[in-house]
Amino acid sequence: MSFQAPKGVKEYIPPQAATFFEIRSAFAETARLAGYSRLETAVFEDTQLFARGVGESTDVVSKEMYTFTDRGDRSLTLRPEFTAGVLRAVLEYGLHRGQLPVKVWTDGPVFRAEAPQEGRYRQFYQLDLEAIGSEDPAVDAETIALAWRWYTTLGLTRVRLLLNSLGCKECRPIYRARLQEFLRGLDLDQATMERVEINPLRVLDDKRPEVRAQVEDAPLIGDHLCADCKAYHDRVRELLADLSIPWEDSPRLVRGLDYYTRTTFEFDHPLLGAQSGIGGGGRYDGLSEAIGGPALPGIGFGLGLDRTVIAMQREGLEAPTPPRCEVYGVALGEEANRAMFALVAGLRAAGVAADMSFGGKGLKGAMKGADRSGARFALILGERDLAAQAVQVKDLTTAEQTEVPLARVVEFLKGKVQ
Ligand code: HAM
């Protein structure tokens, strides 16, 4: 019997995994340059954290969580997103008692039991960044700008930024009631009618044409923002304009998680078909209190690494497969192998990526390994070379071969590969 990965689990295997790794590293630099610190949080959490934080009425909590009972009879859930857990950690370790905003980022697998298709997985990967403790439009604009910067660094040119404000605890309830009143008058199926009562804003986001047509004239949040929310949103837009970041106002953008307030945004890629959302985020000023913390505003985003990799493929931006090493050792005979083993370690210590042939292969087989490794140089060490304390350095691009004294070979190669 042989095994396969569980359905819907996205994996990255060499050599394609190189693109995945590279785009993550690029984000580390983007975050560092803006003063964000790295953080690692729990992969599973108390189920109640997500129920209260993300919201019982969301699809994520009501249908998509991987929840299990552990041996101590506790209900735990594999994280379906990062924000609730990151905020829980910030509160638990008291980071919010230091300088504000707390600026942190992380990345890793997240889990949602969705129907798998291209770009939609059950185990997928997010980059997550959060700025916690400040209510300042500049923090909102900075957050959006960082995601934008990352997409730009990757070379993506087709990303669209969709922007909306969802109001605050003053103006949203008034809007929500008005929207419900409107939606109750429509001819909608029972499940959608139930949604009108629990989470009416989500109905605006329904993709089915028959629903879309009916909600065409629905009241929009943008027309119901209080003066503070309106001024706040205008300021965010001014600051984005100052950075020459283009956006599209999306008055129907509501997002799928309950904690959002005010600024909400999504990044969309037109070449991705049905799963076009490559990232999204927003402000969550009530989340801390919802999970038992003090009043603490926050904003952040989650960027879908898997969909970003697909977007890069669609834009023809896949990173070329990097060579596995720069130098590849081929030794013939036991003593030569031993000397090569030490030489390869010496090369690595000097910063030269090096590998060698293992398993006592003959010259032909070992040279094939050198070719496959993508190395520029092969080091050939036979018994006669060893006796002469020299090694043959073969440039695999030109086939030119040079004899170099063993004691000098690290220096020699360092000069060539760097
Ligand atoms: P989200 O919109 O649920 O937000 O997810 C963020 C991104 O994760 C999406 O834009 C998409 O690219 C990716 N994604 C979501 N579901 C899947 C899936 N099944 N397969 C592949 N990719 C997927 C959040 O999770 C929030 N925590 C973002 C946030 C951070 N808001 C504030 N701070």
Question: What can you tell me about this protein's structure?
Answer:
With 418 residues, this protein is of the alpha+beta class. The protein has two domains: 16-171 and 225-314, BirA Bifunctional Protein, domain 2, CATH 3.30.930.10; 327-413, Rossmann fold (3-Layer(aba) Sandwich), CATH 3.40.50.800. 39% of the residues lie in helices and 21% in strands. The chain contains 16 helices and 16 strands. Strands 1-5-6-11-10-9-7-8 form an eight-stranded mixed sheet, sandwiched between helices. β3 and β4 form a beta hairpin. α1 (17-33) runs antiparallel to α5 (137-153). Bound molecules: histidyl-adenosine monophosphate. Residues 81-83, 112, 114, 119-121, 124, 126, 128, 130, 256-257, 277-282, 284, 300-302, 304, 306-307 line the site of histidyl-adenosine monophosphate.
